[in-house]
Amino acid sequence: MARKKYPGAREPWIDLSTGINPVPFPIPELATDIWSRLPTRAEEEALLAAAALSYRVPDCKMIAAAPGTQALIQLLPRLVPTSHVVVLGPSYEEHEACWLRQGHRVSVVGDLGQSEHADVIVVVNPDNPTGRVISVAQLRGVASALAKRNGLLVVDEAFIDMLPQAASIASDPPPATIALRSFGKAYGLAGLRLGFAIADVSLARRIRAELGPWAVSGPALSIGEAALRDPYWLAEATVRLQYDRQRLDAMLQAAGFTLLGGTPLFRLARHFEAMKITERLGRHGIHVRAFPREPQWLRFGLPGDEQAWHRLSAALSGA
Questions:
Q1: How far is CA 71 from CA 48, 269, 295, 315, in A?
Q2: Computed from CA positions of residues 84, 87, 90, 94, in that sequence, does the dihedral angle turn out positive or negative?
Q3: pLDDT of 319 higher than 60
Q4: 249 in the same domain as 126
Q5: For residue 318, what pLDDT is reported?
Q6: How far apart are the C-alpha atoms of 246 and 248, rounded to whole Å?
């Protein structure tokens, strides 16, 4: 769509509209037959063991692997009777859309205190796009209250990989809680389509049954296992992204933006001429995330190389 809107823009386009690590995990050598046969049970179990190790989950049976967290976001509303669902927002709009599509009544609220009568509560943590983080202690309190009324807490941790381990509820999810973990964002391999749901054993079993057999491709199982067993790569990526985040913050502030928040993988900023800047960036072949409901907001992903950094700097300055 961006190319159609700006046909004369510079090529190649730089897509900063996503929150994906621009320097991906190096894909290991794969067995040649992995493309011509169905994935094996042993390969899936190896991936789940690697995920349990990386996310510090005590039992592999608490994890369901899926072809991306989006698939899980679409699946979960089918597991719950028609309910009142509260989404803590503003946030990733697919949560609201998927629950509505299955006939649930959905409210988007700005504070968890407004969710006292909900059957299901959805929290993106850290939030996309604001970067807001709800403490594990507060989430546990919400989960406890929901469990008493047979409710459900969904915690979408798609952008949590570069935060301290203590920020995640996935390692010890309380009853009535499902934590979602994305693989592709932190590891820069979104096209692989891999994500996880983490819950108590019985709930994870229901999710796996709903996904059906061979939900994750053989290459995704193999690459995912290799990446999740490499904590050193993730640690190095976290350091690099911290530096890049600071560099982007300084660039945006120099261009007159007010920083509103974000995560190690994207930044949210406000500018009273955000729409004009979006147009200018588009003419320079740079795509960023705009928000129709908040016309002064823009979300910027991180450039992946020096050429992209220089092009962004030049476009922001109007050169």
A1: 17, 29, 29, 36
A2: negative
A3: no
A4: no
A5: 78
A6: 5
Q: Cα–Cα distance between 189 and 186 in angstroms, integer?
A: 8
- Are 171 and 289 part of one and the same domain? no
The Cα 70–Cα 194 span in angstroms is 9
pLDDT at 1 over 80: no
For the entire predicted model, the pTM comes to: 0.96
Per-residue pLDDT tens digits for 36-47:
999 999 999 999
Which of these, 171, 229, 159, 224, lies nearest to 199 by C-alpha position? 171
Q: Residue 159 is encoded by which pair of tokens?
A: 């952008």
The residue among 229, 254, 280 that closes a domain is 229
Query: What's the number of CA atoms in the CB half-sphere (13 Å) around residue 119?
Result: 13
Largest CA distance in the chain: 59
Token pair belonging to 316: 């922001």
From residue 284, give the alpha-carbon distance in Å to each of 264, 279, 307, 313, 319. Answer: 25, 9, 13, 11, 10
Per the structure, the count of domains in the chain is 2
Q: Which domain holds residue 142?
A: 32-229
Q: Which pLDDT score, from 0 to 100, does residue 132 have? A: 97
Q: What is the CA radius of gyration of the chain?
A: 20
